[in-house]
Fold this protein.
Amino acid sequence: MGKATVIPFGPQHPVLPEPLHLDLVVEDEKVIEAIPQIGFVHRGLEKLVETRDYNQFIYVAERICGICAFGHSLGYAETVESLMGVEVPERAEYLRGIWHELSRIHSHILWLGLAADAFGFESLFMHCWRLRERVLSIFEATTGGRVIFSVVKVGGVTRDISADQFAEIKMTLEGIKDEYRQIVNTFMKDTSVKNRTVGVGYLSTEAALNASMVGPFARASNVPYDVRSLGRGAYGKLSDFQPIVDTQGDCYARVKVRANEVLQSIDIIEELIAGIPTGDISVPVKGSPAAGAQASNVVEQPRGECYYFARGNGTKYLDRMRMRTPTSQNLAGMVKALEGCELSDVNMIILTIDPCISCTER
Amino acid sequence: MGGFKLGKMTLGSLFKKPETVMYPLETKPVPKGLKGCVENNVSACILCGICAKRCPCGAIVVDKKARTWTIDRFRCVQCGTCVAECPKSCLEMNPTRPKVAKEKSLVELHVPEPIAEPLQNPNG
C-alpha cells in the first residue's frame, strides 16, 4: 500500500453539477475516506420568511431549487395550509399531483442525461435531454413557465388544466414512452454503461438505514421508503402505486430505480387524469397563522424525502420556516459509498445520489 | 449485454428534422398560457397601489402625485400576484417572449386623469 494522500475535489470540477467540496484521502488509486464540505452557495432564503408574508414566500420557496421548484412550493403551501387549517379542494390536489409527477419525470430524465455525461456517453446524454424538453413544453403550456411555475398558492392552485390540455399531456407522454424505453434499454444493457455502474459504490440495506438514506438512493439499497403515500397532500390515496426498490445497492441499481420511476410516474399521471374530479381549484384564505402554531410536513421530491417545518407568530409573517432537503440526508450515505472505491468512480458515485447542494444550503 | 444499444435511435436521428431551432433567427411558437410580461391598461388604472404592495419583489412603483405606474421588468418574476389582486382588472399577462436587452431599464407609464362623468340629468 502506498502513502495516504489527500486530493481536493471540487467545488469547481468539470464532472460536478453542484458546488460540493470533497477531501479524498487516497492510497494509490483507492479512496479510503471522503470528507465533504458545503457552504459555497448559501443564499439565506430561510431568513427571508421574516420580510415576506406567507403568500409571498411561496415564490421564494420555489426558487430554492430549479429542478424541484414545484415540489418546494407544494411542500411549503401544504405546511402553511396545515398551520392555518385550510382544506384544499380535491381538484387542486389532483392538479398538484399531476404537476409534481411531471417534475419527477423531468428531474429523473435530466439526471439520466447527467449520468450519461458523467461516464462520457454524449449521444445518450443528448437523447435524454431531448425527451426532457417535451416535458418542459407541457409545463410551458399548462403553467406558463418552463422551470419556475408559480401555480401553487396557499389554498389551492392558480391555474386549471383543460380537458384538451389533458389529452395533449397524455399524447406527449405516450410519445415519450417508446423512445424512453430505448434509452432505458441502453442504460440497462449497454456494456460501456454497465462497465461504469455495476458493482460501483455499493451501499447495503443496513448501511442505508443506519445513515437514514431517502429517495431513490435508499430505494436502490432495498429500503422501501417513499413518502408519496405519507404526509399531508400525499396522493397515495389518489393513485395505486408501490415504491420501486432494487436489492443490488450499486450505481447500476440507482440508475435502474430512477429509470423505472419515470415509467411509474407516467402511469400515475394517466391514473390521476382519468380520475380528476370537477370543481374549484382554490379556496380563499383569510387571516394569519396563530402565534405559536406549528406544523410539519413531508414531500417526496424527485431526489427523496423533504421535510418542512413552520411556526406562526400571529402576524402574516411566519416566525420560522425550516426545510431539510434530501441531499443533506444523502450526503452521509454518499461518504459511506465512496469508501473503498476507485478514484475514477468518484464522480459516478457522487452523481448517483443526485446531489442538489443549492437546495441543501438554501 | 453488448454495445451499440443506442445505434438505432442515433441513426434514426440522422434522417429526422432537428428538434432544436436556430435561435435567434427562429423562435419557438408562444403557447397560449405563457406568462410573458405584465402590461397595464392605464385608462382603467386608478393608482390604488395594491399591485405594488402585493408584489413579492418590489418591481412595481406607483406614484399617485406624479400619476405614474412604473415596473422594473428585470425585477419582476412573473408570479401573477398583481394581476390576480388588481381590483380594476387593468393588469394582464401578455404572452410574449421578452427581447434580450443590453442594459436594465424601467417601464414608466403615465396614468391619465379620470374623465369626469357627465351628469345624469344636466337640465335639472
Remarks:
- The CA atoms of residues 210 and 333 of chain A lie 9 Å apart.
- Chain A touches chain B through 33 residues (CB under 8 Å).
